[in-house]
Write a structure and sequence with these properties.
Layout (H helix, E strand, L loop, with lengths): L1 H14 L4 H30 L4 H6 L15 H18 L9 H21 L15 H12 L7 H31 L5 H12 L13 H4 L7 H37 L12 H13 L5 H25 L12 H18 L12 E5 L2 H4 L5 E3 L9 E5 L2 H6 L6 H7 L4 H9 L6 H4 L4 H13 L1 H4 L5 H26 L4 H7 L5 H12 L5 H21 L5 H10 L5 H16 L1
Parallel strand pairs: 1-3
Antiparallel strand pairs: 2-3
């Protein structure tokens, strides 16, 4: 109905220029009808889903959720979320998408993708694999939050009181995880043994005899000035009690279960494809991570081709390079962090060459905690939407601890901080015009694709000022291309762990840690290269089409301003932008 009316009005607008304002009013009215319906569906969804994402709710300023940690692996949670997603997907189908204006069409299409993905994931037994070493599950994430270095603030006495409620939620989650893993054992759905062996030391680190030595006691050591002495004593006693009677017993129960029951029953295979229903799980993971319809075989072939291309480029750089001094090696954590700070200063000075809009939020550079560094690579924790809590670039310093020295990896800083994750996520989260599901949303191929693309921007930013630095960038890109081959190899082609390690360069901490990460987090590693290639392709298309009128700052701002989205939706959006600028 609306498509026909819109077509007629479009012809009238083209034939009768004098009727332009009246036609525009009628077009706005048409868009308004479906816009109101879209707004109703989105607002209803966000209202109903809020209890299921309490940390996001807290960041939106909904203080009533500050005490909640959702048990997202329980049957009640899954049943309730399924009903919400199914009901709103049905309602969204009644909205005439083609009649919406461009910004509203973006919301419609991203929302539809989100609801489809929600239902598809809930149809698969991911909840039976709740614990891993890669920082994806609460046993490894909760200590970061509880130490005061994560999303939960510790600025007021109420913040401290609220976290005690989240401790209760964590204990319930742990007990559900144990029950779920027992169900998984009975169905032959377990994590690989190699994954769970890396979980054990993470759990052991949280089992302490003196609660004052726990990382969960750290906020008590750093009370803000506004909390008086009596309240401090009361809170300190409450935290000692919670650590002793809740947190340590929960970790102890989980460790005992994993060590005594789960590890003996864990599968010795490494890929999802060798587990009951695993091939369907991997197919879903591939679609979710890449936001494309690419098959595992096509991804594997793309990886092989990219590996060959990048190796050839590295050979050309080596052939043209004169001998250069080795990069500076730092011998202490403080020196290494200072080296990254110096790099940060130079990158920040150059960013306006490539971006017109920069975020307000700042970020810090921290070393990853020792209990995580053998299992978790360097990463980024997003800033709070209001910028009050800075983002964090977490640097894995295992190389420094093992060899006594380490260099600054420039591509890594560009990926995790600027102009990578920190810039992209902060721009998105600071955009209050976006619906909450978009403002706090994440699509791996967009986010990690942008961060890998950002590594390449180091050439234009002047960061890779020596052949050695450029080779470092290419080596990192080669690593991401190899992931396409290895991830599909592990989960689809029955590769062994040794085959995967060998393809990544042979035995060593980095290759071993990465392969076990892919085992625990199927397909996530595919999003980097596929997203980067899509963004690069769109930039080249814009450069060719617009010629001298191409403005790289405008291109980057347009790419980022609407936040994360599936690659197909991004491509359509940017091609419309190119067409407008060409006209």
């Amino acid at each position: 109905r609306w498509r026909g009316v819109a077509a007629v009005l479009g012809m009238l607008a083209a034939s009768h220029a004098c009727a332009g304002p009246r036609v525009a009013e009628r077009l706005d009215a048409i868009d308004g009808a479906d816009h109101a319906a879209l707004e109703d569906v989105v607002q209803s969804y966000e209202r109903e889903v809020t209890p299921y994402v309490p940390f996001t709710a807290s960041e939106r300023g909904l203080r009533e959720y500050d005490r909640v940690l959702a048990n997202d692996i329980s049957e009640d949670y899954r049943r309730g979320l399924r009903a919400i997603c199914a009901r709103h997907r049905e309602a969204l189908r009644r909205v005439e998408a083609e009649a919406l204006s461009e910004p509203r069409r973006l919301t419609h299409d991203i929302f539809a993708h989100r609801l489809d993905g929600c239902l598809e994931r809930l149809d698969l037994p991911w909840h039976l694999l709740p614990v891993n070493q890669a920082g994806l599950s609460w046993p490894s994430r909760f200590p970061i939050v509880g130490s005061g270095k994560g999303a939960h603030p510790f600025k007021t006495a109420q913040n401290y009181e609220d976290f005690l409620g989240r401790i209760d939620g964590f204990v319930a989650w742990v007990d559900t995880a144990i029950a779920n893993m027992r169900t998984g054992m009975a169905r032959g759905i377990t994590q690989p043994r190699d994954v769970m062996l890396r979980v054990v030391p993470q759990l052991q680190a949280q089992i302490v005899s003196d609660p004052r030595t726990s990382v969960f006691y750290d906020p008590i050591r750093t009370f803000p000035d506004g909390i008086d002495g009596d309240r401090r004593r009361t809170l300190a006693e409450a935290y000692e009690d919670a650590i002793t009677r809740k947190i340590v017993p929960a970790y102890t129960r989980l460790l005992a279960f994993i060590r005594d029951e789960y590890l003996p029953r864990c599968r010795t295979s490494v890929g999802l494809g060798e587990m009951p229903g695993g091939r369907a799980m991997y197919a879903h993971a591939v679609r979710a991570a890449t936001t494309t319809s690419m098959t595992p075989d096509a991804i594997h072939d793309l990886g092989v081709a990219e590996v060959a291309r990048i190796k050839a480029e590295m050979d050309r750089v080596r052939a043209a390079a004169a001998p250069a001094p080795p990069p500076t090696r730092y011998r202490s954590v403080a020196e290494l962090l200072e080296g990254y700070t110096e790099l940060r200063t130079s990158v920040e000075a150059a960013l306006p060459k490539l971006f017109g809009h920069l975020p307000r939020a700042g970020f810090e550079i921290r070393a990853i905690e020792p209990f995580r560094e053998r299992s978790v690579p360097s990463g980024y924790e997003a800033a709070s939407p209001d910028g009050a809590r800075p983002g964090v670039f977490y640097l894995n310093i295992a190389e420094l601890r093992s060899s006594g020295q380490a260099a600054v990896h420039r591509h890594l800083f560009l990926h995790e901080a600027l102009p990578g994750h920190h810039l992209q996520l902060s721009v998105q989260r600071e955009n209050t015009a976006l619906p909450a599901f978009r403002r706090f949303g994440w699509h791996t191929a967009f986010g990690e694709g942008w961060a890998l693309y950002a590594e390449g921007l180091g050439v234009e930013l002047g960061v890779y000022d020596t052949p050695g630095a450029r080779l470092g960038m290419l080596h990192a890109e080669l690593f991401r291309a190899a992931r396409l081959v290895v991830d599909v190899g592990l989960h689809e082609r029955r590769w062994t762990r040794a085959q995967a390690v060998e393809y990544l360069g042979g035995p060593g901490d980095d290759a071993e840690r990465e392969v076990v990460r892919y085992m625990a987090w199927p397909a996530q590693a595919l999003g980097y290269k596929i997203g980067q290639l899509a963004i690069t392709r769109l930039r080249h298309e814009a450069e060719r089409t617009l010629g001298p009128a191409f403005d790289v700052r405008a291109f980057h701002d347009e790419l980022l301003r609407d936040g994360s989205m599936p690659l197909g939706i991004l491509e359509a959006k940017l091609r419309r932008w190119i067409a407008r600028h060409r006209r």
